[in-house]
Task: structure prediction
Amino acid sequence: MNDMDKTRLRINRSLILQEVRIEHVRDFLYQEGIISEEDMDRCGNVTKTPRERIACLLDLLPRRGPEAYKAFCSGLQETYPWVVEKLNSTPIPETQTKTLSSTVLPNKEMNTGETSERQRIREPYTELNHTVIKIVTRSEALNKYKDVVRALGVPQPDIDQIEYANFRDLQEQFYQCLLKWQSREGRNATVVRLIEVLREEDYNSVADKLDGYID
Result:
């Protein structure tokens, strides 16, 4: 999920907690592969209050891939159209807009040939490759690899299919899921994006290893 959509959810969190019930959107998000059965059980726990359930979902969504915000709004549209309208019309604070714009500038400079020597060295290694995949699949991220690949945008049905085809082999499941991400995203399946997701999921040590690899 991009920073602007995260901001929209944060600004409207109180509204969503007050208005939305998880039962009206949970199944749709599962159907679209945004959340897993484990997520459904965690956030739909009957011991939680309705407010706690939707809060749980809001905490998960930013880590569930680039399509999570769009799917959330689609799931809300039938029952809560006013919430969707409020979300999509929420102005992003000017300070954040400037921050986002400033992060785009270096990429524009790279495209115009004004790259530094270090950037030219890094460039061949920004796409996913076997060495990167090997580092990640042998790390502590293995035990909860599904959280990582869902955050990368791999649909839940694809994850389930890969798990079934490689029963009891977690490393191969993780490996195949990363290849699935690469086949879906092409050149957008970069090491930089993988590092971002690993940090979002609190796997900083393996993210640091990848940072060292592409330096």
